[in-house]
Amino acid sequence: MKFNELGLSADLLRAVEEQGYETPTPIQREAIPHILEGHDILAGAQTGTGKTAGFTLPMLQILGDTPSGPRRIRALILTPTRELAAQVNESVHTYGKYRPIRAMEIYGGVSARPQITKIKRGVDVVIATPGRLLDHVRQRNIDLSFVEMFVLDEADRMLDMGFIRDIKQIIKQLPRERQNLLFSATFSKEIRELANNLLDNPAEIQVAARNATVDRVEQLVYPVDKDRKRELLSEMIGRGNWQQVLVFMRTKHGANRLAKQLNQDGITTDAIHGGKGQGARTRALRDFKAGKIRVLVATDIAARGLDIEKLPHVVNFELPHVPEDYVHRIGRTARAGQDGTAISLVCIDEKKLLKDIETLLKRGIPKEFVPGYEVDKRIKAEPVQKGKPRRPSGPRPAGRKKAGNASGSRRPGKNARNNQRKRFSRSARSSVS
Ligand code: AMP
């Protein structure tokens, strides 16, 4: 099937062609005709499937090419994170390049003033995170009573982040007559409930079960002691001459610390997490995409939905508490038909987390042992602390005490480590499934 068979207008097709897309992805093939017919949609699709164009293109077509009056928002897209809001806004601008449609993003962490000015000037499409949008609603800066199309993007993530009450509040502001599109990677009972209340006789679309995306990613587990992870990572990046690596941490604090250490190792690194101002987050992402920094250390929330083209390496420096997050993390690599590797550095404390992930994947992840980084069997497992429930601003630091071994140290002496370092090479890896 070609794009021009989907019923999209010439200017949208031109914008798509300029992106170099040749054929629509499965979600686009399925969703676009239904949306153009005015149906509500319940779509099971995660980032990387092309879902953004899947709802943005028909939305632009439906909105037509007449800008609306002041403060008349006609389409509202809710996303869980600021980054995703910015990305979706970028897509609306990319695909709506040949239309006078005005779109803006609204999120917290930045001054509300410029947002208010922009809303007053007139905007057709708002892409927002729930908290700041509600602030604007409460202060009567924005009127949502003209919204014709409402999109909940990454609904599962929004519920995980505790946004359900905000979402319900926002829905109350919308007119009864509207088209609703709900996108979610997973379908829990809560999502089904939300969908039942929100959607009217929706077309249900499920593209490529989540493992299909994941199957293109070469996944490996490197068992290693916790205190030696940083050293191993630096070495892998250096030896493999990796130029673009996305590294995941569980906490903001951990992300900052690792970024600092990698910079000390001479590897240009920045961190991206909910504790950073929007300016710093945008800058870090831009520098990473442009190749100005080699490593971006991220927490799950900040990285959610990040679209970085052809990302070759994803490293789980720490495994996530929620197994689904593993799937989201490794979905950052091997995008749009590219191959990629996802490496998890797993210490003894994380055995249970690994097991949960393997259960979700319904298969084991091959283990590779790096000579010189053999695990010290004397180290006992400690529970991985979960910290407080996740808030939109990101997970809390999970500070915990280090375990000592008989010699008071968790790692071999410096000389031994240097010898081990010399011995490390990718070809020397032994693979055990
Ligand atoms: P998404 O799932 O919306 O985050 O999109 C993932 C990536 O796929 C983005 O980089 C898009 O630019 C890209 N993409 C979207 N549609 C297509 C297509 N039909 N062909 C190739 N790439 C696409």
In short:
The chain is built from 17 helices and 15 strands. By secondary structure, the chain is an alpha/beta fold.
Description:
By secondary structure, the chain is α/β, with parallel strands linked by helices. The protein has 2 domains: 3-206, Rossmann fold (3-Layer(aba) Sandwich); 217-361, P-loop containing nucleotide triphosphate hydrolases (Rossmann fold, 3-Layer(aba) Sandwich). Helices cover 38% and strands 16% of the residues. It is built from 17 helices and 15 strands. It has helices at 10-18, 26-36, 51-63, 82-95, 113-121, 130-138, 155-160, 164-172, 189-198, 210-214, 229-239, 252-264, 278-289, 300-303, 323-330, 351-361, 414-423; strands spanning 41-44, 75-78, 103-106, 125-128, 149-152, 179-184, 203-206, 217-223, 245-249, 269-272, 295-299, 313-316, 340-346, 367-369, 430-432. The chain has a 7-stranded parallel sheet, with helices on both faces. The protein has a 6-stranded parallel sheet with strand order 8-13-12-9-11-10, with helices on both faces. The protein has a two-stranded antiparallel ribbon with strand order 14-15. α3 (51-63) packs across α4 (82-95), α6 (130-138) packs across α8 and α15 (323-330) packs across α16. The radius of gyration is 23 Å and the shape is globular. The protein starts with 9 loop residues before the first helix and ends with a strand. The model is unreliable at 388-433 (pLDDT under 50). The structure holds adenosine monophosphate (AMP). Adenosine monophosphate is lined by residues 21, 24-25, 28, 47-53, 307, 309, 335-336.
